[in-house]
Amino acid sequence: MLSTSVDQVATEVDVKPRERILILSAGVGAGHNSAAAAVKQACLARDDVDDVLVVDVLQQSSTLYRDLLGKGYFTLVENVPWLVDWGYDFSDLPFKRRGPIDPWTRANSIPAINEIKRFKPTAMVCTHFLPAQLVASLVLRGVTDAKTAIVTTDYDFQGLWLTSAFHAIFVAREEGRVQLTAQGVPADRVAAVGIPISAPPSPAFVRDPDAVPMLLISAGTSGGDYAAAVVRQTMHVRSPFRATVVCGRNDQLRRQIEQLVAPAGERYRVLGYTSEMPELLSQADLFIGKPGGLSASECMAAGLPMVLVNPIPGQEVRNGDYLMEQGAAVRCNTPSTIGWKIDEILREPGRLQRMQAAAQRIGRPMAAADVLTGLLDGPDRPLVLTRGAQKSILTASARRLIASDLSGPKSLVRLVDPATDSTVALLRAEELADLQTRYPERGGYLVLQRDDSLVSLRWEARRLLKSLLRGDAELPVRVEWASKGVRPSS
Question: Angle formed by the axes of helices 129-140 and 103-119, to 10°?
């Protein structure tokens, strides 16, 4: 009997399905692809992952499309930052842009769609809102039944990331989770895990509080020219320090800074692009650079406070607001005061250590692993947000309301799968009334059923059933009202 039991257990282990994980990113800046690489690293550390692939959807699109979205964005940042700031706020309302993906984007998505069909993933992780929107359309059309995760890469949640279908959204901090649930997104589909970063070096470096402080000055991957002004300012700092300057792929900037710091002898070390950033972050005492989502997340995980310079309007400014709110950063709005601000931190007894403790407190070094665990252990059925629900979420957000403030036929209703206690659909009360006239109730549940004729169903109902039923003939669901437990009148 014992032998038989062991054989059965061994057989069950052998036949346990293994995961094929596709990670979709978009190379607008380095952060989204860095997050994708971190998730891939976490995949390789799991025993249940059979294969993992990272795809940059922009690299598979046309050159014109790629340049407009990638280079075009940074051209705007450089020349008309006020327009970038306006655009960020304009698109911050969820579902302000509704409807199908525009024809040009759809045409440029064909290679990525073909890659999805070829790879046949069991799970997909999106680290940019473009592939997240693409994957949502595939889920609703029944092209894929893979579990899908949206993983944001900044500390604030921006409305473009919210799509019509997904299995889970992973945000960087608790405020983002509260924001989404207040807007109506079911709490069981949102988790605050941090921003995925590569695993920190092991063993962890222990800072010596009595050593001369080490500054890490970063120009970013592409090598922003503002770094020269930062270095020039640090040369006026009176407190003792040493500095490492990372110039990225900008060789001209590296040579310029080498000439600039030559009179300082060994006080400065100047590097070009390096793959040793995790080690540099762990050894530094203070970071000076831009508050990109990945840079900030890496610094916080390393317990490294930041002096913020030259943030991109929109997401980087909001990242900086959060870091300063937590006591882990200061911001320099005027280039001529950078050296003075650094000196103030270094001169005040205990201030640098307090900022390091604040950074350590909010760091989330295991975010990538937490994303995978949350997705793979989560529900198999997606959450579908109907067009009506999207309109209600937009209306509430534009009027500065929360979901529970809505009433009447426009209020939000959740359909919950009682087998897993997970929300599978968010819709309007008027849409629920339509479903209730078509499908029976049994044991207190509304029973959604496959309808092969589909002639009498609206397109939205067909899409909902295709996404939820998948291979099942029917699905009993529990109805829950988002409006403080009060059923709105029809």
Answer: 70
